[in-house]
Amino acid sequence: MRDDTAALELPEIIHRPDLQSRRQRSVFALLSGVGWMLWLYLFLPLSTLLGWAFGSERFQSYVIDSHEHSWASLTVYAVTVVLAGMALLIWAFYNYRRFRHADRRRPPSPLTTERLAVSFGVSEAQVEDLQRSRVTTLRHDARGHIVGIETASTL
């Protein structure tokens, strides 16, 4: 039977939202949004306290009431955005010139029965049986390694 006392090390979870239905993804997005809103709501008093401590009334006097400060700030923001955009374009052009003739994308090498056997820790004959079978039951140890293979029918 099963040994429940052994510590079970689970492998990393494979995150594949493309395998979820639209409804499942929508519920997940809704719950995430509600969670973020609750988190922000909990820290709203802290942001209010920080604004009060660092003088949020200065925003009112320098930005809202004084138009010359507002235009100066907007000018600084615009210049910063333009400079950051130029830096990004220069970097992109540099990388284009550097790598334009280098196609480093290669198709993966064919997956052989031998590589599958090594990957799963089973024999090549067992891999071939698994490939031919329609129904398979795999038994794993506490660390997730295959310890037993049962095939019901073949193609």
For the largest beta sheet, what order do the strands appear in spatially?
Answer: 1-2
The chain-level mean pLDDT equals 82
Termini distance?
31 Å
String of helices and strands: HHHHHEE
Low-confidence regions: none
Provide the structure class.
mainly alpha
Strand content: 5-15%
How would you describe the shape?
elongated
Instruction: Tell me the radius of gyration.
Output: 30 Å
The number of distinct β-strands equals: 2
Major sheet size, sense and barrel closure: 2 strands, antiparallel
How much helical structure, as a percent, in the residues? Answer: 55-70%
Number of helices: 5
Secondary structure layout plus pairing:
Elements: H1 22-53, H2 57-64, H3 67-99, H4 113-120, H5 124-132, E1 136-140, E2 146-151
Antiparallel strand pairs: 1-2
Question: What does it look like?
Answer:
- The protein is mainly alpha-helical and 155 residues long.
- 58% of the residues lie in helices and 7% in strands.
- The protein is built from 5 helices and 2 strands.
- It has a two-stranded antiparallel ribbon.
- Strand 1 (136-140) and strand 2 form a beta hairpin.
- Helix 4 crosses helix 5.
- The radius of gyration is 30 Å and the shape is elongated.
- The mean pLDDT is 82.
